Amino acid sequence: MRLTDAVVYRLRKIMAERNITPYYFHVNGGIAKSSISQLFNGKQEKVTLDFLYQFTSTLSMSLCEFFNDPIFDEVTD
């Protein structure tokens, strides 16, 4: 599994748990709607740490908490 796919999987899992939509990241985190759309629609090849930090900060979550999920054991590239 690609790292980007694992990140999207993890974000979607958290979003489902908290009952939030991708638009939440735009409204509460100031992340561009186009960036959010590209990530969730598989059009973004790589995720930078800064970009990921924007998402986790919006969720009031540390990077350590975010990556503490078995899905990241499946990352091969």
Give structural notes.
The chain is mainly alpha-helical and about 80 residues long. The protein has helices at about 5-20, 25-30, 35-40, 50-60, 65. It is globular and about 35 Å long. The protein starts with a helix and ends in a 10-residue tail after the last helix.
Most strands sheet: none
Sheet/helix structural class: mainly alpha
Poorly predicted parts = none
Bin the helical content.
55-70%
**Count the strands?**
0
Percentage beta strand: under 5%
- Terminal residue distance: 7 Å
Number of helices: 5
Radius of gyration over alpha carbons?
12 Å
**Shape from CA axes?**
globular
N-to-C order of helices and strands: HHHHH
Search tags:
single chain; 77 residues; mainly alpha; 5 helices; 0% strand; globular
Set out the fold topology.
Layout lengths: L2 H16 L4 H7 L3 H8 L8 H10 L4 H5 L10
Outline of this structure?
This protein has 77 residues and is mainly alpha-helical. It has helices at 3-18, 23-29, 33-40, 49-58, 63-67.
